[in-house]
Amino acid sequence: MATALEIKKRSDIRRSGRIKYYLRKPHVVISLVLLVLLLFVVIVPFAKMVKDSFVWQLADVRLSRGAHPGEFTFFHWIRVFAGPLTKNILTRPLGNSITTSLGVSVMAMLIGSLLSWLVARTDLPFKKVIASVAVLPYVIPSYIHALAWLTLFKNDRIGGAAGVFQYLTGINPPDWLSYGYIPIVVTLSLHYFPFTFLLVSAALASIDSSLEESGEILGASRTYILRRITFPLVLPALLSSFILTFSRVLGTFGTPYFLGAPVRYYTLSTQIYSNIINRIPSVGYILAFVLITISATVIFINQRLIGKSKSFVTIGGKGFRIKDTPLGSLRYPLLSIVALIFCAAVLLPFVLILWQTFTLYPDDYSFKKLTLLFWIGEANTAFAEGEAGVLRNPAIIGAVWNSILLALTSSLLAGILGIFIGYAVVRGRQTRLAFAVEQLSFLPYLVPGIAFGALYLALFSHRIGPLPALYGTFFLVILVCVAKNLPFSSRAGITSMLQIGNELEEAAETLGARWSMRFRKIILRLSLRGTVSGFILVFITVMRELSLIILLVTPETRTLTTMTFRYQEQGYTQFSSAISVLIILIVICGEALSKKLENRTPGKR
Amino acid sequence: MADPFIEVKNLTKVFGNVVAVDNVSFTIAEKDFLVLLGPSGCGKTTILRMIAGLETPTQGEIYLKGRPVYSDAKGIFIPAREREVGLVFQSYALWPHMTVFENIAFGLKVKRMNAPAIEAKINAILTYIQLDGMRNRYPQEMSGGQQQRVALARMLVSQPDIFLMDEPLSNLDAKLRIEMRAEIKNIHVQTDATTVYVTHDQVEGQTLASHIAIINRGILEQLATPKTIYRRPANLFVADFIGSPAINRIEGRTGMNADRVLVKAGTLNATTNYKDIPPDQDIIAAIRPENITIVPEAGFNTVPGTVRTVLPSGSETVLRVHHRKMVFSILVTREVNLSPGQEIYMYLPPEHILVFARDSGLLFPLPE
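^ inputs. structure came back:
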C-alpha cells in the first residue's frame, strides 16, 4: 500500500495538467479573485502607509529644512519615538489611550457582568425588558453619550456655552468633571457595557445550574458559590469582553475628541486625527501603526485565550436547566440600581440631546425659551450663521441621503462579498487558498477604525497607476466601510454557507446546471435568507460610523455623523444634537427591523 | 462480457495524509446494479463522488460509456454537469426554497425544455412516485419517505443512463426502508439504467445488487455477485463483514486424512472438501452459522458443545454454543427446544467449511 506522500509525489509530476482543471473549479477562481481584491483593500493600504512614513512628504518642508519630498527618511520615526516632541506626540497620548481603555474595560465589565448575572440567573423583575433595552446604548453612536455629557456638565470656562448643571445650580463645574479622563471613561463605559452583557449572558446561559446547585447541596453559601463556581466558569467570557472592549476603546475617536480635545487631552486616536488634519500625515501614519500593533496584539491574545478555554465554556452541553437565584430583600434595591444605569445610559442622554435641540441659546435651558427653530426654522442670519433648521436644511438632508446611501450600499456590497467569501472558504475547505482568503478577510478586525481610515487616506490620496486619486469620492467612503465590515459579513457568509452544505449545489451540478445558474438559483437564494440580519448589522454599524470615515469625507460626501462632528466642533450644539437624534431614530428602526427578521428566520421546521 | 459501461482504473484519492481510495479498478456492464458495500469511512462514497465528477481523483482513470471523463495521465477532467449521470444523495439534497414541482423541474429547465413538456413529464413522474397532490409542497413539509421519492423523481425525470445513489435509504425508518428498497429495485428493472449504489447495509446490498464490491480502507476487497460474495468470500474481511450473525472462525492448523484436508484445533478435528493444502499450515477455518446443524449424538465431523444462550427472534433462533474455549453461533430456522446448559453435537458439513491462510487472510481456492 502506497503512503499518501508517495502518491502525492507521483502525481506532482503531472502537475501541469492538474492546474488546468484546478482552475475550472468555480470556488478556486472566486478565491483567486477575492485574494487579489483583499490584498488590495487590506494589505496594500497597510504597506503604503508604512512606506509613506519613511518618505519625506510635501508638507514636511514646513517642519524641516532638510526635507526632500519623495526621498527616504527616518525623520518621522525619530520625531515620534526619539525626538523632543515624543512626549507630546506619543508618550502622553499613548498613556491616555491605555488608561482610558483600561478604565472603560473595568467599568463596562462591572456593569455588564452584574446585569447579565441578574438577567440570566436571578428572579429580578422585568428581566425580558432589561435584556432587550440593555443593547440599546451599544446600538447608538458612541459619541452620543459624550454629547449628552457635554450638554449636562459643560462649563463656560473653556469656551462655548455652559451646560444644564451650571444652568440649574449656578455652579461652574470643574474641568475634571467637564472634560478629560473621567467623562471619557464614564461615557464610554455606558456605551460599551452591553458588549460584556452579551458575551457574559451567553456564557451564563451555557452553564448548567446543577453545577451551582451541587455546591449549594454541599452547604456552600451563595457568595461562596458565586465566587468559587460561577465566576471561574464565566471567567473566559469576562476576559474576552475585557480585552475586546479594551481594543475597541483604543480605536474610538468621537468621544475622546469631544471630551478631550478642548482641554488638550489627547489619545492616540485623536492624535492621529490632529496630525493628519494638521498636514503631518506621516506622523499620523506612524501613530496609526502603533495603534494597530497594540490592538492586533491584544486581539491575538484574546484568540489564544478563547482557543484554550473553549472546552471550558461548553461544559453544560445539552439538556440542562437554569434555576433562578432568589434575590430576596435585595430584589428592589438591585432593580433600582439597574433602572439607574439605564437612565444614565439610555434615557438621560436621549432626553438631554432632544432638549438641547429645542433650546434657542445653547446655554439657556428654560421652558420659556424652547423653540423649534433648529428643526424647522427658515434660514435666518440671526442664528447659526444663517443655517436653516435641520428638516429644511438642504445640506443636512443631503447628508441624510448620503448616510442612508452609504449604509445601504456598504451593507449590500459587504453582504454580497461575504456570501462569495463564505462560498470560497466553505467549498475550498482545507486548501491553503481558502485559508488565505479567510484570514485576509478577518484582518480589518485588527485595525481600529481611525487607523483604518488613515490607511485608506495614505493609499488613495494620490493616483495609483491608472486609478485616479479616490480621495474625496463617495466611492472611497463606501470602499472603506465595506472593507472594515468584511470580518462580520464574511463570518455571516461562512456560517450560512456551512448551513447550506455542499450537496444542494452538487445536486444541481449533476443535473447539468452551470455554475452561474447554481449560484443564482440556489446558493444566492438560500444564503440571502441567512444573511439579512447580517446586512442590517452592517447597515447600523455604518450608519453610526464616525472614527472610520472622519479622515475620508469631504463636504460633498459628508454623512450625518461627520456633520454632527463639524457642528459640534463649531459650537452649534443644537444642530449636532438634532442630527444625533435623527441618527438614533434611524438606527433604532434598523435594530427593531433586525429583531423582527431574526424571529422570523426560517429553517426551523 | 459486453463492453464495460463504467470503467474505473487505478483510482486513487488522497485527502491530506489519508489515502481514502487506494488503487481501485473495476468495470460494470450495461444494466448492472453494482453495490459498493463497506463499513463507514471506507471510501465507497468517495468512489461514487469521483464517478459523478464531484470529487477530483488524485490518480487514475474513469470511463463512462467508453468516454474518458477523468484521466490524470491524459489531463482529462469532465465536470459533473457534462457527465450525464443522475445522483441521489443520502440527505436527498432537495432545495428548501423550491416546491416539489420546482425541484423536479430544475433539471428539465437546465435542458431548456419547454413549459408544456415539463408539465407533462412532471405530472407523469408524480403519478409514478405517488405524490400527485404534493406538487406545491415544500420539502420540509413532507415526510422523509416522501422527500426520498422526490429526490428519486428529480433524478429519474432527466433520464440519465447512469444512476448513482449514495446511501439513499439510510435516513428512513426500518419499515419504510424495506418498502423503498423494493421501489428502487422496481425502478431498476423498468429503466434498465446502470446503477452504482453505495450502502453500509449488507442486507440492502444483497437484495438490490447484481454485483457487490466490498470496500475496506480504500481498497477493493472483492467484486462478485452477491451469491459468490456470500459463499466464496475472497478473504477473511469479506467473510466477516457479510452475514449476520458473523461467520464462525476456527483458528487451527491443517492436517491430512486420506485425500482430504483436515482442520485441527485442539480436540477439534474436521474434514473439509479441500484436497491440496499442505499439512501443518496456520489457517483459519470458517463456517456460516446457518450451515451448522445440531445432531443428537456424535458422528462424522461433529463437535460436542454446551448451549450457553438461546436467542429466539420469530422465524429463526440464534444459539451460542461453547466448545472448550471456542464459541459457535448457530442459526436455526425452525423452532428448537433447547435450553442453556444442554449438551449437544454440532455437525460441520465439509462442503461448507472455508479455509483461509492465517497470515494473508486469503481464501484457499475451493474445489469445484
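The mean pLDDT of chain A is 84. The radius of gyration of chain A is 26 Å.
thumbs up if we can close this ticket
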